[in-house]
UniProtKB/TrEMBL annotation:
EC number(s) given by UniProt: 4.1.1.35
Keyword annotations: Decarboxylase, Golgi apparatus, Lyase, Membrane, NAD, Transmembrane, Transmembrane helix
Family from the record: Belongs to the NAD(P)-dependent epimerase/dehydratase family. UDP-glucuronic acid decarboxylase subfamily.
Residues shown, of full length: 96 to 438 of 439
Subcellular location: Golgi apparatus, Golgi stack membrane
Biological process, per Gene Ontology: D-xylose metabolic process; UDP-D-xylose biosynthetic process
Cofactor(s) essential for the protein: NAD(+)
Protein name, as recorded: UDP-glucuronate decarboxylase
Pathway annotation from the record: Nucleotide-sugar biosynthesis; UDP-alpha-D-xylose biosynthesis; UDP-alpha-D-xylose from UDP-alpha-D-glucuronate: step 1/1
Organism: Nelumbo nucifera (Sacred lotus)
Primary subcellular site in the record, as a coarse category: Golgi
Single GO molecular function: UDP-glucuronate decarboxylase activity
Cited function: Catalyzes the NAD-dependent decarboxylation of UDP-glucuronic acid to UDP-xylose. Necessary for the biosynthesis of the core tetrasaccharide in glycosaminoglycan biosynthesis.
Coiled coil: none
GO cellular component: cytoplasm; Golgi cisterna membrane
Length: 343
């Protein structure tokens, strides 16, 4: 029978009396919710590579079994099809809570489900963390800053968010998830960490998921025009996925609660991004201007001084270095799609 005082979280604060032999030496057991998705699957790769036991919880809304298949047969890996909106009983030391659709197209598809995932799903994972004394990390988002009136954004900025707009299920959902996280920390003594993630790209992103990087890369590879929304002068900062995964692990293992911005401060307009995609994939690619979506933030760029100073973390891979690293993966999957395959 699991005893909460055996968790690594409690070991570190010295609450443990006598720990049964064998358990002390046991590998760290980690849950990754959303571990079959883009970011989650890269995180799982890293945790398994360093010898941890990993349980993935995923309902496969935007995640794919193919992102985890290379671990099937590994006795330290387990995959559970489960929706975090429902309670679950598990015994682990750490919880990385990523489950939530991330691209605007996906999170707007069923906004009620998105906000339930953010609120009820996060509540359940915090309830789980409380019961077993596990450390809990929330993957929040730069969207909590809304259409920011402060630039670049620091963690101290409270944001400029529309509470009743079409993006609210996601940005207000994540703000509530942050509130719940802090309330479980202050009110129930749960050890928590909060990451505010800025736009991230890399292999295994869903094709055609509406994110600008995956759209442009797919379009350039298929010889279709790159769809720039609005006048293309809005800005974003793009981070390569391995940098983010390093940041998440550094945050989980450090003593600071956060929130921490995790992003690459390099700032690009969408027109500049289109140029980099052209340079990387096809210089003859054309641009097509489309109307922009509602409530689209005009600019976004992280101030990452807090993460640099307290986590000793900063991104290493620039956009020009990172983009080519996702092209082979996209090429393979686009070809597979065209041939009616299942990759
Ligand atoms: P993703 O859509 O690829 O992954 C999300 C995963 O969660 C998928 O595997 C999906 O099936 C799963 N999921 C969704 N709802 C679920 C539910 N109710 N129960 C169980 N599983 C569920 O997205 P991602 O880009 O990997 O994002 C991971 C996390 O990082 C998300 O919480 C997202 O909000 C956050 N984030 C990502 C970015 C980014 O640029 N990718 C930026 C900011 C924040
Ligand atoms: N929960 C869970 N697994 C657990 C413990 C709790 O899924 O191991 C869920 C529980 O069903 C509840 C939520 O987490 O919906 C919050 O739990 P908590 O104990 O904080 O609140 P309570 O159950 O007292 O409302
Ligand atoms: N965008 C674009 N073309 C596309 C998809 C998106 O110009 O095909 C724009 C979008 O309007 C936004 C920016 O790219 O201004 C980033 O969008 P994304 O959905 O990638 O991220 P988010 O808005 O969540 O930061």
């Amino acid at each position: 029978v699991w005893n909460p005082s055996w968790s690594s979280a409690n070991r570190q604060v010295g609450k443990v009396g006598r720990v049964p032999a064998g358990i002390q030496r046991r590998q760290l057991r980690i849950v990754v919710t959303g571990g079959a998705g883009f970011v989650g699957s890269h995180l799982v790769d890293k945790l398994l590579a360093r010898g941890n036991n990993v349980i993935v919880i995923d309902n496969f809304f935007t995640g794919r079994k193919e992102n985890a298949m290379h671990h099937f047969g590994n006795p330290r890996f387990e995959l559970i099809r489960h929706d975090v909106v429902e309670p679950i009983l598990l015994e682990v030391d750490q919880i990385y809570h990523l489950a939530c659709p991330a691209s605007p197209v996906h999170y707007k598809y069923n906004p009620i489900k998105t906000i339930k995932t953010n609120v009820v799903g996060t509540l359940n994972m915090l309830g789980l963390a409380k019961r077993i004394g596990a450390r809990f990390l929330l993957t929040s988002t730069s969207e909590v800053y809304g259409d920011p009136l402060e630039h670049p954004q620091k963690e101290t900025y409270w944001g400029n968010v529309n509470p009743i707009g079409v993006r609210s299920c996601y940005d207000e959902g994540k703000r509530t998830a942050e509130t719940l996280t802090m309330d479980y920390h202050r009110g129930a003594g749960v050890e928590v960490r909060i990451a505010r993630i800025f736009n991230t790209y890399g292999p295994r992103m869903c094709l055609d998921d509406g994110h600008v990087v995956s759209n442009f890369v797919s379009q350039a590879l298929r010889k279709q025009p790159l769809t720039v929304y609005g006048n293309g002068k809005q800005t974003r900062s793009f981070q390569y996925v391995s940098d983010l995964v390093d940041g998440l692990v550094a945050l989980m293992e450090n003593e600071h609660v956060g929130p921490f911005n995790l992003g690459n401060p390099g700032e690009f307009t969408m027109l500049e991004l289109a140029e980099v995609v052209k340079e990387t994939i096809d210089s003859s690619a054309t641009i097509e201007f489309n109307p922009n979506t509602e409530d689209d933030p005009h600019k976004r760029k992280p101030d990452i001084s807090k993460a640099k100073e307290l986590l000793n973390w900063e991104p290493k891979i620039s956009l020009r270095e990172g983009l080519p690293l996702m092209v082979t993966d996209f090429q393979k999957r686009i070809l597979n799609d065209e041939e009616g395959g299942t990759l």
